Structures are given as structure tokens and as C-alpha cells.
């Protein structure tokens, strides 16, 4: 691959985690906490400061995934298809909808922010797929406390082909 002779410049970094890991060293970045859940539960603090709609799974998928009608491998394939354009994912393009405003303008997601789901660490979660896409478009990613590259994310997705994501 051309362009690989020199290490790429250090890019902006996002953290991907769950809300429960807020106090675990290295699992959340220094910036804002944002949800990537379709149905965050406010009473459990699953909204954070707003939602990154780009990485929230479509509502129609969730009952199928939870019932097992759609297995994790299929869920991953569907999300990859859905997100394949990488539209709005790049640094400077990715945004979130802040809470508490009707039709709010997007606010830029910046280096240091943390994108959260509620799934436990180590459980299959769409944040693994989100990590892959963020890496594709130039973010650096810390996933559940670990700096990952696309190979590491691919291993995760391969190992857990039939789990129960949330
Ligand atoms: Zn999840």
C-alpha cells in the first residue's frame, strides 16, 4: 500500500465504552460522554450529553437481535452495509444531537469524547463495528480501555460470531 512508508500523523482519538466503565482507568476519554444507543434509558444515565445518531442501530433491528432472530454475525453485516458510505463519520464531520432541544443542530464530536452503549465489556456490541468504521476514516480508537487497530477489531468480530448483542 502506498503511503505506508511513514507512520501516519497522530490523529484525533475517540473512546468506545459502556456507561458502567466511567470510573475504570482508561475506559473513558477526557471529553464528553455520548450515547450510541437507539433506546437509551434516561434513569440509568444512558443518554450522556447527547446522541451520535450515526452509530445508533436502526430501531427495526433491535427486537430481532434481542430475540435471536438476527444473530450477531448478521447484525454486524447489516450494520456494515448500512454504514458503508462512511457518511458523516470523519473527524470534523461526526456530530451528536445534544439533549433537550427539539431538532437540535449537530455539535461536533471531537478528540477525547467517549461513545457509549450499555453492553458489558467483552459482550458482542455494535460499538465494535463502530470502532472499525471510525478507524477506517482516520480516528484513533480506544475500545474498552484498549487501543485498537482494524486487525484487532476484526479479531473481536470474528471470535464472537454468535453472541447476544444489545
Ligand atoms: Zn451494545
- Give the helix tally: 4
What is the total domain count?
A: 1
Query: Helix- and strand-based class?
Result: alpha/beta
- Flag low-confidence runs: 162-166
Strand content is 15-25%
Shape: globular
Radius of gyration: 15 Å
Q: What is the spatial order of strands in the main beta sheet? A: 2-6-1-7-8
Q: What is the residue-mean pLDDT, rounded to a whole number?
A: 91
Q: Portion of residues in helices?
A: 10-25%
The biggest beta sheet is recorded as: 5 strands, mixed
Query: CA-to-CA gap between the ends?
Result: 36 Å
Can you list the ligands bound to this structure? zinc ion
| Tally of strands | 8
Order of helices and strands: EEEHHEEEHEEH
Amino acid at each position: 500500500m502506498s503511503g505506508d512508508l511513514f507512520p501516519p500523523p497522530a490523529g484525533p482519538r475517540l473512546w468506545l465504552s459502556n456507561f458502567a466503565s466511567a470510573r475504570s482507568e482508561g475506559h473513558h476519554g477526557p471529553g464528553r460522554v455520548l450515547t450510541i444507543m437507539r433506546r437509551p434509558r434516561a434513569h440509568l444515565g444512558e443518554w450522556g450529553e447527547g446522541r451520535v445518531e450515526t452509530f445508533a442501530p436502526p430501531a427495526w433491528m433491535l427486537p430481532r437481535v434481542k430475540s435471536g432472530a438476527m444473530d450477531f454475525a448478521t447484525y454486524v453485516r447489516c450494520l456494515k452495509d448500512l454504514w458503508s458510505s462512511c457518511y458523516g463519520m470523519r473527524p470534523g464531520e461526526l456530530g451528536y444531537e445534544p439533549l433537550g432541544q427539539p431538532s437540535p443542530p449537530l455539535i461536533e464530536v471531537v478528540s477525547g469524547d467517549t461513545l457509549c452503549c450499555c453492553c458489558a465489556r467483552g459482550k458482542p456490541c455494535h460499538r465494535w463495528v463502530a470502532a472499525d468504521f471510525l478507524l477506517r476514516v482516520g480516528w484513533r480508537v480506544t475500545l474498552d480501555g484498549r487501543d485498537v487497530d482494524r486487525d484487532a477489531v476484526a479479531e473481536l468480530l470474528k471470535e464472537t460470531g454468535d453472541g447476544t448483542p444489545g
